[in-house]
Hints:
- By secondary structure, this protein is an alpha+beta fold.
- The protein has one domain: Gamma-glutamyl cyclotransferase-like (Hypothetical upf0131 protein ytfp, Roll).
- It is built from five helices and eight strands, in the order βααββββαβββαα.
- GO terms for molecular function: gamma-glutamylaminecyclotransferase activity.
- This is Gamma-glutamylcyclotransferase family protein.
Amino acid sequence: MESQYLFTYGTLMRDYYNHERMQMSSFCEYVGRGQTVEKGMMFCNFIPYVKLCEYSNSYPIQGEVYSLTTDDFLLQLDALELPAGYKRVQVRVTMESGDTVQAWMYAVKREKEIYEEKSGDFRVYVETKLSESERKEMKKC
Length: 141
């Protein structure tokens, strides 16, 4: 299988519920943290949505990169993400090491009436905007 990468910025990241639910460690290997080269805007309503755009107020999106160990996992993620209003797109991600990889990412099909997280980092939203009970619900047990 040719190397494929997945960029996650929300509940598929380590420590959040979909990471465990989707058994991420069985289908991919954690590579490291990075940020998108393409700019976007993050909107949150308990879960995050990213709209890729080149507006003057857009910013890189922060997240985690995984190396996929099987092609089938993308189909499983599609079954989770596409009905929830996302589309799968390719983005360039600059790793903390400075290397750049091409990765799949799920971006929102259209904006929703939700809160914009201007830092572009879902962890900031969770820690600063959610109540303690919501944070506990968001984190895996």
